[in-house]
């Protein structure tokens, strides 16, 4: 037998081993364990604020850690920092490239980042001595579009790209500290764990992966979806995460059981999910869809608990503030809505 | 690329795949029943701190509907 053939056989054996180990742990289901739990009942939220100002599709947003400011990015070529309480625009930042696909707010509030079809992650200083906002670093190295970026702190950012890799960057030097390779399709989204030691990625190869930030290793891979994964988010305790896909389902994966625990779907829902977020306790899963709506799911029981209708086009992004007080949704209709 | 280079690339790739699968195969796993119970417990312990789940009284809602002001 050639070495290649031996290696292929060994790979097959290992895949079977993983499948069997997962099956051995599959002694019950999340649905069975929560069968006796009270359902959350009907969750109704109203639009409390509408943030108007972008002139084209909004592609991304992220709350600042103060639960009041937020950043949004639109293909009108602007990054806007909003005060969600007053709806005032704190900054309207013109971008060098209007083909933006992602944006992020540093936990300190001092920086924002964005990128897209320019393959570059641009870092903006929001608190310069002169009082203006300017680009402080352009992180180039990806050979495909920037799909997502998330700050670890003021000096480190993690990115995901259409070039199938993710990267950890040292913002000071502008270099990639670590490259995360393994996906075989465009990586569309990433989510940092609450303890910042790991992150999960979701890709167009229909798989999601858990990565160790320090050593660059992929620790676990999860399959199940049958189409592109567009969004991933960690469950608040860091032991699980949810993905949203073009296959019209969201799925909850548990890291310690190393398998899918729940699927969130309905016969009436036939369009892709663009974005996902958990409420503060993790009990509610919010998901944004191509059909202009947001669905609210009971994470534990897998039932739909509510629908948020109001946008006139695809919901492209959403996020819940760190104090859990509000959901922000961004849409191709050029508006952001704040709900609770 | 010569066929020799191509086949050594394939072998290198296959070795990497096996190496990665070994890492993933060797992790410790817990039962789904335990993982599920832990998720359920986390949600129940934190439910009271979840405004979107519990509802927000108007007096505590920083986004409560703004009433129009009357100039007297």
From TrEMBL, chain A:
Coiled-coil stretches noted in the UniProt entry, renumbered to this chain: 1-31
SMART domains in the record: WD40
Highest taxon of source: Eukaryota
Keyword Membrane: no
GO biological process: signal transduction
WD repeat residue numbers: 51-92, 139-179, 180-221, 222-263, 273-307, 308-340
Keywords (A to Z) from UniProt: Coiled coil, Repeat, Transducer, WD repeat
Entry annotated with the keyword Methyltransferase: no
Pfam families per record: WD40_Gbeta
Entry's transmembrane regions: none
Family according to the record: Belongs to the WD repeat G protein beta family.
Role: Guanine nucleotide-binding proteins (G proteins) are involved as a modulator or transducer in various transmembrane signaling systems. The beta and gamma chains are required for the GTPase activity, for replacement of GDP by GTP, and for G protein-effector interaction.
Name this protein carries in UniProt: Guanine nucleotide-binding protein subunit beta-4-like isoform X1
Organism listed in the record: Carassius auratus
UniProt gene name: LOC113115022
Automatic annotation (TrEMBL), chain B:
A single GO cellular-component term on record: heterotrimeric G-protein complex
PROSITE patterns linked to this entry: G_PROTEIN_GAMMA
Xref: SUPFAM superfamilies: Transducin (heterotrimeric G protein), gamma chain
MF terms in GO: G-protein beta-subunit binding
Keywords, comma-separated and alphabetical: Cell membrane, Coiled coil, Lipoprotein, Membrane, Methylation, Prenylation, Transducer
Matching CDD domains: GGL (cd00068)
InterPro entries from the UniProt entry: G-protein_gamma, G-protein_gamma-like_dom, GGL_sf
Domain G protein gamma: 7-72
GO biological process entries: G protein-coupled receptor signaling pathway
Stretches assigned to coiled coil: 4-31
Topology with respect to the bilayer: Lipid-anchor
Protein localization: Cell membrane
Family: Belongs to the G protein gamma family.
Subunit description: G proteins are composed of 3 units; alpha, beta and gamma.
Biological role stated in the UniProt entry: Guanine nucleotide-binding proteins (G proteins) are involved as a modulator or transducer in various transmembrane signaling systems. The beta and gamma chains are required for the GTPase activity, for replacement of GDP by GTP, and for G protein-effector interaction.
Protein name: Guanine nucleotide-binding protein subunit gamma
UniProt organism field: Carassius auratus (Goldfish)
Gene symbol of the encoding locus: LOC113050668
């Amino acid at each position: 037998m050639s070495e290649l053939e031996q290696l292929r056989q060994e790979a097959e054996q290992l895949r079977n081993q993983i499948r069997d180990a997962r099956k051995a742990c599959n002694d019950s289901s999340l649905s069975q364990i929560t069968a006796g739990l009270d359902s959350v009942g009907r969750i109704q939220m109203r639009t409390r604020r509408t943030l108007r100002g972008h002139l084209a599709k909004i592609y991304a947003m992220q709350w600042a850690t103060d639960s009041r400011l937020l950043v949004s990015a639109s293909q009108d070529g602007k990054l806007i920092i909003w005060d969600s309480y007053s709806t005032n625009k704190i900054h309207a930042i013109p971008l060098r490239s209007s083909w933006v696909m992602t944006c992020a707010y540093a936990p300190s509030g001092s920086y924002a980042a964005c990128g897209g079809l320019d393959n570059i992650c641009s870092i903006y200083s929001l608190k310069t001595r002169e009082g203006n906002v300017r680009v402080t670093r352009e992180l180039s190295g990806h050979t495909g579009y920037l799909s997502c970026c998330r700050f670890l702190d003021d000096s480190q950012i993690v990115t995901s790209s259409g070039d199938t890799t993710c990267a950890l960057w040292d913002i000071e030097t502008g270099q990639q500290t670590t490259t995360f390779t393994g996906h075989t399709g465009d990586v569309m989204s990433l989510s940092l764990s609450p303890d910042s030691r790991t992150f999960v990625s979701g890709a167009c190869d229909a798989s999601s992966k858990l990565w160790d930030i320090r050593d660059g290793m992929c620790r676990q891979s999860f399959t199940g979806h049958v189409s592109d994964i567009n969004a991933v988010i960690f469950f608040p305790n860091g032991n699980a995460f949810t993905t949203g896909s073009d296959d019209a389902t969201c799925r909850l994966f548990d890291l310690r059981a190393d398998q899918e625990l729940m699927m969130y779907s309905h016969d009436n829902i036939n369009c892709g999910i663009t974005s996902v977020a958990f409420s503060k306790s993790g009990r509610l899963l919010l998901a944004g869809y191509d059909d202009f709506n947001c669905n609210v799911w009971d994470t534990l029981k897998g039932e739909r608990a509510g629908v948020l209708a109001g946008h006139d086009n695809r919901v492209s992004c959403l996020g819940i503030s760190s104090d859990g007080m509000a959901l922000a949704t961004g849409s191709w209709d050029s508006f952001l809505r704040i709900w609770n | 690329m010569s066929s020799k280079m191509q086949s050594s690339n394939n072998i290198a790739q296959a070795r990497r795949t096996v190496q990665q699968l070994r890492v993933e195969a060797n992790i410790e796993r817990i039962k789904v029943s335990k993982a599920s119970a832990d998720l359920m417990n986390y949600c129940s312990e934190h439910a009271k701190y979840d405004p979107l789940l519990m509802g927000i009284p108007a007096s505590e809602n920083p986004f409560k509907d703004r009433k129009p002001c009357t100039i007297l």
